[in-house]
Write a structure and sequence with these properties.
It comes from Halocynthiibacter halioticoli. InterPro entries: Enolase-like_C_sf (IPR036849), Enolase-like_N (IPR029017), Enolase_C-like (IPR029065), Mandelate_racemase_C (IPR013342), Mandelate_racemase_N_dom (IPR013341), RHMD-like (IPR046945). Keywords: Magnesium, Metal-binding. This is Mandelate racemase/muconate lactonizing enzyme family protein. It is a single chain. Helix 9 packs parallel to helix 10. The protein is α/β, with parallel strands linked by helices and about 375 residues long. It has 12 helices and 16 strands. The strands form 3 sheets. Strands 6, 7, 8, 9, 10, 11, 12, 13, 14 and 15 form a 10-stranded mixed beta sheet that branches. Strands 5-4-1-16 form a 4-stranded antiparallel beta sheet. Strands 2-3 form a two-stranded antiparallel ribbon.
Length: about 375
């Protein structure tokens, strides 16, 4: 039986290629903690998580001081058992972002190891439901981008085969958002999905008001209109509009997703593998959503979510935001607006270790 012998922790700070502003924040830096686990058979796996500019050192400290020492000597094939043991070890700080992000880095590394040992790509290991997934773009729809540039990017994405694009909303007056979305809709026509994202910036009354405008534009979904912990308000909003309500990037536990699904407060689940704590709980959320007849369209983490959405039956879209280009040897495979997962054993991410070491802001070995 293999035993975990070594845990290496690295953090790389990646600057976004595009200025990213939404209704409540600016995405200044992607702190990317990476964890590489090696066992007594010489099998190693690498997992990771991310922040949008703050909290990365706290994640690394939890990994170095608590999780990594607890991993030494454990059987790496006990992925679910290890996940629960680490959660119990940090029960006083759960549920929360820092703990979930640290758990995700460990859990994804263990899945990488398991897939390599089994000589399977992740997308087949978790179900192999489909060989590709349609993509929609977010990079051209940030709040600070002027309307002509929104239109130009939408037409470019449409010409490249993308099936849709997402646009940030949350300008002080609803008319501003309406004009921007109308310009895009006029340019791309009816056969191109337009998604919107408010980043939790509205009250319930304002969400209902904005949803009426979105109905007129034939919007595919209204993402994070309200504070993520307000299930009751989301349920009321969902009953008041025909626009699908999307939530998930700011939810950190299976039970929180359960509340949304049981109360009919969301019809699109955007579970984020880093923020939910790894692949192990991500798959449980996806199965729970499937049981409620709800689709999964995960948030961010394009490179890791690609094999996961191709592994399950109820995925609909992959969000296209390249985030690992600076530290990988190549990006994901794309053709005609669809993304194809790697058939390499493991997560399917081609890490460029020279680039990682060159850009590392922190490193430790346990």
């Amino acid at each position: 039986m293999p035993k975990i012998e070594r845990v290496e922790i690295t953090m790389v700070n990646l600057a976004p290629k595009t200025l990213r502003e939404d209704a409540i924040q600016t995405f200044t830096c992607q702190e990317t903690p990476l964890v590489t686990i090696t066992d007594s058979d010489g099998v190693c796996g690498t997992g990771y998580c991310y922040t949008i500019g703050t909290g990365g050192p706290s994640v690394v400290a939890l990994l170095e001081k608590s999780f990594a020492p607890a991993l030494i000597g454990k059987d790496p094939e006990r992925i679910g058992g290890i996940w629960h043991e680490l959660l119990l070890q940090t029960h006083a700080t759960s549920v929360g972002a820092i703990t979930s992000l640290a758990l995700a880095a460990v859990d994804t590394a263990l899945w990488d190891m398991a897939c390599k040992r089994a000589k399977l790509p992740l997308w087949k290991a978790v179900g192999g439901a489909r060989e590709s997934i349609p993509v929609y773009s977010t990079e051209g729809g940030w709040l600070q981008i002027e309307t002509p540039a929104l239109v130009e990017d939408a037409l470019a994405k449409q010409a490249a085969g993308f099936g849709g694009a997402k646009y940030k909303v949350g300008h002080p007056h609803v008319a501003t958002d309406a004009k921007r979305l109308a310009a895009v809709r006029e340019a791309v026509g009816d056969n191109f999905d337009i998604m919107t994202d408010a980043n939790q910036s509205f009250s319930l009354s304002e969400s209902i008001r904005r949803a009426k405008m979105l109905e007129e534009q034939g919007i595919a979904w209204f993402e994070e209109p309200l504070k993520a912990d307000n299930v009751t308000a989301h349920a009321e909003l969902a009953r008041s509009t025909s626009v699908p309500i999307a939530v998930g990037e700011s939810i950190y536990s299976l039970s929180q997703f359960k509340e949304y699904l049981v109360h009919g407060a969301a019809s699109i689940i955007q579970v984020d593998v880093a923020r939910i704590g790894g692949i192990t709980p991500w798959l449980k959320v996806a199965a729970l959503a499937e049981a409620h007849g709800v689709v999964v369209c995960p948030h961010f983490l394009m490179e890791l979510h690609l094999p996961l959405v191709c592994g399950i039956n109820n995925a609909q879209w992959l969000e296209y935001i390249p985030q690992l280009d600076l530290i990988t040897e190549h990006g994901i495979t794309m053709k005609d607006g669809r993304a194809y997962p790697s058939d390499e054993a493991g997560l399917g991410i081609a890490w460029d270790w020279d680039a990682i070491q060159k850009n590392a802001s922190y490193g430790a070995e346990i």
